[in-house]
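Need Signal recognition particle protein's 3D structure for a figure. Predict it.
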Amino acid sequence: MFEGLSGRLGDVLEKLRGKGSISQDDVNAAMREVRIALLEADVALPVVKDFVNTVKTRAVGQEVIKSVTPGQMVVKIVHDALVEMLAGQIGAQAPDEAEDDGKGEGERKKRDRVAEVLNINATPPVPILMVGLQGSGKTTTSAKIGLRLKTAMRKKVLMASLDVQRPAAQHQLAVLGEQTGVDTLPIIMGQKPTQIAKRALDEGRKGGYDVVILDTAGRLAIDEELMEEVAEVRKITNPAETLLVTDAMIGQDAVTVATEFNEKVGISGIVLTRVDGDARGGAALSMRAITGRPIKLMGVGEKMDALEEFQAERIAGRILG
Ligand code: GDP
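Structure prediction for Signal recognition particle protein:
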């Protein structure tokens, strides 16, 4: 088990009890523990360094409030900075509003906001491109988004799998389409991803669809061919959203994956999946910091309704342990 930051800092800052304010030395000692906690939570080293510097400047000279211990205070400073960094510019997401009121109301709000965080205000049919490594949860997330747009916003959605590497992948999306009642593009074997993408948009126009979700192929690791293929699809479809889907368990690989997809394809946002698992969430912070792109949504289970608006508070809590 990881030792939570509160526990670590409790020992380090015990001697601060009764002091008026936090000194540079105290902060340095505390930041050593913060650094270890973040690295253990799989945050990438350069991101850890930046973060620690930000927090250091904030903590020095802070008056220690009598009602809390210095450890608790530093944890709060670190926590608040983490939330800010994770939420970034889209800090517009209001965690207070999403608080559960015990009647499931908060839960409903979080799920209803899923459709709102996506930018789909272009001329229909609006393409949404899903990219990421194989097994990251792209196909599942495509269907979850399709279902959410259909139910929460009454959008007419068409989904298409561009995965010609694994015939089973196209079938998997068709099955999820049937399960959710979201239309899928009929499968024609032998077409290239770009041909399927064009066919999907044509069908989107002819069929009066509002949104067309394009689920691309993923490899087990990044490769040039995959990147070129996805970049080409992006060029010809000009999507309103290009969402990088990554597993929260991805750990230190998050940096390479996010950098590569952002530089070679270009992404507009990130979806973090398997947040229901026991990942510490450091990958989220690394990807947010390195790409500057917002984490828009998070997958919290295998079921089709297990998709929520990203909550920085929840991930910050995980990272701190
Ligand atoms: P793809 O290869 O990127 O299209 O990945 P899939 O959509 O096929 O997902 C791979 C596996 O992860 C499937 O068994 C999904 O049910 C599962 N999965 C996807 N998202 C989540 C999630 O948020 N939580 C959990 N527990 N499982 C998920």
